Amino acid sequence: MRVTSKTFIRKTKRGNILKIVREHYLRDDIGCGSKVCTKCKLNTEQPLEKIVTVNNTNFTDKHYLLVDTNVVLHQIDALEDDTLKNVIILQTVLEEVKHLSHSVYKRLIDIIGNYSRCFYVFVNVYHRDTYVERFRGESPNDYNDRMIRVAALWYNKHFKGTIKVLLLSSDKVSKAKAIDEGIPTMSLEQYVSGLNNVTLTDKLSNRTCMVEETSKEPIFPPHLTPAQIHQGIKSGKIMQGTFFASNDNFLEGNVFVEGQEKNILLQGRENLNRAINGDIVAVKLFTEDQWSAPTNLVIADYDDLDLENDRSINETPKERYPTGQVVGIIRKKWRQYCGIIQHSLVENTNRHLFVPAEKKIPKIRIETRQYDKLKDQRVIIAIDTWPRTSRYPLGHFVRSLGKIGEREAENEVILLEHDVPHSKFSDQVLACLPKETWTITASDFVGRKDFRNLDICSVDPPGCTDIDDALHCMLLNNGNFQVGVHIADVTHFVKPGTAIDLEASQRATTVYLTGRRIDMVPGLLSSNLCSLRGGEERLAFSCVWEMTPDANIVNSSFTKSVIKSKAAMTYEQAQLIIDDQDQNTPIATGLRQLNKFAKILKKRRMDAGALVLASPEIRFLVDSETRDPLDVEVKQIKETNSMVEEFMLLANIEVAKKIYSDFPEFAVLRRHPKPPPSNFESLVKAAAHLGVKLNVDTSKDLANSLDKAIKLDNPFFNTMLRILATRCMLQAIYFASGTKTYDEFLHYGLAAPIYTHFTSPIRRYADVLVHRLLAVSIAAETTTPELLDKRKIETLCQNLNVRTRMSAYAERASVALNTHIFFRGKIRDEEGYILYVRKNALQILIPKYGLEGTLFLSPRKGQVQAATFTYNEEEQTQRCGKIVFRTFDPVVVQLSLDSSNVQHERIVLKLVKPEILNFSIPSTNVSTCATTAQQSQKNTEASESSLQPQPKRAKI
Amino acid sequence: MDLLSRQGLRTDGRRSDELRRIRCKMGVFNQPDGSAYLEQGNTKVVAAVYGPHEIRTNRSKASNENAVINCQYSMATFSRSERKRRPRDNKSAELTLHLKQAMTTAIKTDLYPKSQIDIFVQVLQSDGGNYSVCVNAATLALIDAGIAMEEFVISCTSSLANGETPLVDSSNLEETMGGPSLTVAILPISGKIAMLETSQRMHINHVEPVLSEAVRGCRYIYDKLNKIIKKHYEEIGSASNWGTEE
Predict the structure, then answer these.
(1) I want to staple A769 with a disulfide (CB 3.0 to 4.6 A). Which of A668, B57, B234, B246 is the partner?
(2) pTM above 0.80, yes or no
């Protein structure tokens, strides 16, 4: 080994200039990684192949590929294609990619990890013959390019012509130099064109085609350079924030700037200036006289846009918001998007428009020669660039998911769009599982209490196979009761640091789509070995309390245990047993006592200010064969639901206290921050119009005023208020206790000062962590380093938060998808209520389907409408003649599915009642009755055999 | 920043179990009774030993049984990329004590009653593992001074990369970026531990692998220094033909 040193100059935070000297060892034991070579030691498990068979008309010699940084950065989609094999990745390239784009780096690592692809990482920077020192004054880019060329040259000399190493580079200067030095070089485009592979050609990034368009007039103002932005932020003229596109109006968006009270509003194409949802952008505020207000318009595309309307934005609004313009994009959050290719009007063209499934993303222009094949497919597209001259960003095709409308493809879209990891469990993960015939042995009783003789039972929704909790209650001799909550002992099977643990921590939660469940842990554990099924011996983690008859805890203990559940019941069954006074089995009396306790606990919680919120939750009855939804029903809440919930809350709170007292720095807790008063503004306003006063100072005030807000003429009013109040809330999040002060631990919704998740380890990873902590604190297990690392716990928590949020969105999207399938070919009249009054539309909630839809009041483009509505912004009303629409008003609307846009099938609402001349339509009740009758008849047959979606408890 | 790449190389090109280059020279100064210069990678240290001599300072400490060991650890003001104000501070006072402890275990102090042995070490250039290199340099200087010792005292540092892999002989970058680091000084023949210290809390599961890696590093340094010393004395002795003459 030789040693040399690397010297560079660095500026410290304080502004001191430092000279840093580091050693740099040059090794002679780094192999070239090819099976052909006999000189080098093979130090890789995935060497470059000996026999290379690639038919490339542009390069006929036997060859390996060597890519430069730009090719990786821009053409990662093409590199992901299986056709490209035997590629050498230099350490220089790897490091540069890592530095420039973390997402591309991750994908590159995945490709390298795929052994069949034969990607070899050559550590050129530590190789004796390929390391070169940087010249004085040489730019880092030039230096890296030179390193790449030196390595390429070394490779070609090393193989002595038996195999050529082809350098793929798109940089003109570097390419010319390489050719001068005698290195075979070409661009990836040129190389791919020699392969005659249409799919691969489509995957090429669209960077070159913009050249033709530069002659056009620029549509967008230019972006500032990074240096200018940096300067601007420093001087306070420019602000940095996250861009969120508006849900309804594609020409509007908000920028959230940290530390700013109000978001900055962006309006119009020039001001959005090519920002895409999620980007970190640099914004410049306008002077105050140019400030504006959200338009309240629902605009989906340029087609919807009346140009005059566009101008009318400038009419003086009552309340102005800080308004600004994007002047640069600091970090692009571009990812791959699912969607479809828009039907093109011109025939035989390669240029097409792609419509993303997510409304917040603009359409993307792509080039493909496979339009005929892809036109009715769900496809994935990546954005390449967005030049100033182009109205839409330019992108390229990545892969196809399947036919539009097919359940599998649509589910795939939902999962991909929400970034839900859903691939099959890998062999390494499955290898961690115990055998299917696993049973409890004598050794399992060590350190566990034997609770098999207790009368334990579980109460869950029907069809639930992952039972993670069970309860028992027993009268003690001193008149007190022993109450036990028994939770599946998942951590017995999922040991820290194993493949199964890593996978579960990545997935973070089980995702329940209608008719499909994406497990966090493999099915053997989730629905068999961990599930506390009736009549089977299972390992559990138990919380046992002694309670006085008025539900005060005398003492509590936590222990690992072995239990044997006497019965696995549904809520309904449990309710029947409780109500049936003739039953006096230990289970029945236990349940009755638990129910009594639950009522006391609930009352206590309510008095402390816990909120009862509502969200329209529905479930589908699904046909077992076709998996099509047959009917919907709103989830029924029984007394027993609340009984189980109370005890789960109690267990969670008790566990939270315990682990926090033992691990003040890294206990995994869950907090629900108090929403800022501004979140409630519109709700309070809307309620005030109906003469209902809402007090939102504390959760208790809110709970009280919600309880009082009852309108006799509108029985659904209270539920509506609760639904809207739910939307004002912030999200509850997991965190490591050491990162916050005790005051911030508050769970606002539950009015609990400290809270965590302990009771569902089968379907939530947070619970797994909490189980481990609790096990350590009762000395049932020893700690592992990861568990005691605050930073690691915090990063884990952040991942859990993201995944949990995404899974909730995915579940919602799945319900929406099924609603659409359900409405195919159906027209129904339903009761609905007005949620929001908008400038050109009413937002309507149909409780029966848990559905929210838009009823447009102003005519769509190209249509004429006789009835005109007047919008009153102050009172939030829409008026037409005598009829006034206010928030919370009941209406009857006709629902039908508009399939004219294949991508965004949408439910169309038409007003039935109140009747408005030339606007409302006659009722179709006759036909609805017929279909409902037919439907319900079908239901009775289906409901027995139906594969019900996995229902689960409300999130607490 | 990854301290250990997927290819198993550290930021300076070493593998996790490789030490830095060791170079040393004994008898670099003439005035002291013994001296040595040692460099491990970019950490460069000189050590000088005076004694055994009559106790000059602090006569009250004099003992009829043992020699008094007096140590001083200091860092040159130019030893880091930012100039230090003073060569000695609180940190170096602490290291002085550790150094004294480690050296006292090996020196046969009972052979030198009523006398004093002074060990001065100075870090000329600092790049991680300063204390370890100082211990090793002090051992060399003591040998050069001809002071009787049980055996060598050899020290080595090891830290933890990515929370799992032990890195032996960590550089400054690895010490500052990585997890907790562990310094051990051992008597390599008997395997006794003369000093053990961790920079921060270290999980019990990590102590074993990190410690064994550090000890392995010590043994490697021992072999290396042993060879150098033998060669050194062969060269010195060759003038009077000892070492070459059988």
Answers:
(1) A668
(2) no
